[in-house]
Hints:
heterodimer, A: 56 residues, mainly alpha, 71% helix, B: 569 residues, two-stranded antiparallel ribbon, 64% helix
Amino acid sequence: MSVNTVPNGALTHIPRISVTIPTLWRENAVSDLIYLLAGAGVVLIFAGYAALLRRA
Amino acid sequence: MDARGWTEILFTIGVTVALAWPLGMYMARIWKGERTWLDPVLRPVEGVLYKAFGVDPKSNQNWLAYAVSMLAFSAASFVVLYLILRFQNLLPLNPQGFPGTSPDLAFNTAISFVTNTNWQSYVPEATLSTFSQMAGLTSHNFLSAAAGIAMAAAVARAFSLNRGEGLGNFWVDLTRISLYLLLPLSIIVALVFVALGEPQTLAGSAIAHTMEGAKQTISLYPTASQEAIKQIGTNGGGIFNANSAHPFENPNAWTNLIEIVAMNALGYACVVAFGILAFAKKDARALVAVMALFVLGASGVIYATETQPAPAMHAVHAATAVNMEGKEVRFGAPSTAVWAANTTGASDGGVNGMHDSFMPLGGGMAMFMIQLGEILPGGVGSGLYGMVVMALIAVFVAGLMVGRTPEYLGKKIEAREVKFAMLAVLILPLSILGFAGVAAVLPVALKGLENSGPHGLSEILYAYSSATGNNGSAFAGLSANTPWWNSTLGIAMLLGRFGYVVPVLAMAGSIAAKPKLEPSVGTLPTHGPLFIGLLIGVILIMGGLQFFPAQALGPIVEHFQVLAAIAGR
């Protein structure tokens, strides 16, 4: 995770939320997207499976 | 083994089964929407919730609408929990300052708690904030358990209908089961746990100074409330890594007894409630008998194996009568054995000893209980519908053997229902053996193993059995917090939960549409010893046929290695 610093190396006092969400998101955006789609997607695929069983 | 140990095992199982009747009668009232003693307090709350979420409590869903509602709820729950875990550093109640979890761990944990598995790849007290534990995990302990019981209610209604279609309303069932059953029970049990010494605080941790002068940070958490729903909802996910072997989660023999009873009471109660709704109280009693006999048998096997000297102790000529490795001294072998049989039969997954340290056949027995389908008595709700599936297969097999028309509780069982039942049952070997087979040859998976040889295979097999069975306990020798294990175990949990329940609901829809018949001379009685024996046989043969070869390469081979080691060969 990248952290903003001033020349003497001290951490800047940027409100935490404004730094962390975009940073977290940037670093893991692809992983998050894959895992969110995999989890929610697989559950919803079972809805399709249910519809298939209805027609069987 | 001694009489005291057996008495403890019999007493524990006896109390649990006895509690099933009052709880089951109460649960049936909730399922039927009847008045309960909590109505004056909770009925207005229930009404507000329906209005807030736009639920029409009078609408009746067919099986497909019921299933889709459950799946949509689970998908939304997964997304919310995933985001809580990933961004816990930005959320309140994080006194330890923990960062967000990794994506693969959030995936695994979110699925784990949404599917009532509660497998934990992480050390909770070193990973999760108080907010994540409470708002994320504990709330899902309620909701996933309520969803499971709701499915059981839908299946029970199918047997009560005569050419019907509506199986109830998922949103109403979810609300009523959470409000009227799980919340009040959890409050009572949590207060008992607090009285017996479990911590209940929002303070981050206590600091202890050891005799050597070192400083120890001991996490506290609102443990008692988490512990109550962990057991009542057959969740099993510990607030501490050592689970109920940790003295804060399980301080003494009383809490140990209550936790065992709590983890199985609602499982049996679901069967009693099913009997009331389906007008089949005697048949429900037979299902309870089968469940209890399996738990008793498994407790006996584990007790017998754990009262053998461990080979390592033999090697140093210090053989003792009991294998105490991995067990709490304050509980001993009988309490550990009866807990292990109950937690693996019940899809709970909480542990008071380390299953990895059991003798090979003891660990193998615990794993076998999971592989039998988590129906003994199984997870809350899921145990009941799993057992109904087995009962249908049993009457179908009996029908084939003696030429009778298969019937169960007044419903003709035909090819369509049996196909749905088999679609559900076959998901277990597909996921367990499929994933275990792949993991056994992939270097990326094998890196997580602490042991090689048969015990290593047992660790792999146990992990996928536990995930697919939505149990959540583990052979602790597996380091599962890696992308491979987190991802594949997560998929296994999804298959085990939804791959099973969707065909079961389809089966329930098909059964609901059939006429309810009176028993005839050609009807096989499904409440007597003959049916109990038949059902036990079907469960054993299904489990045995599917998993015995894999067990033979793991725990059974290891057992013979131990015998050879003791004999000095």
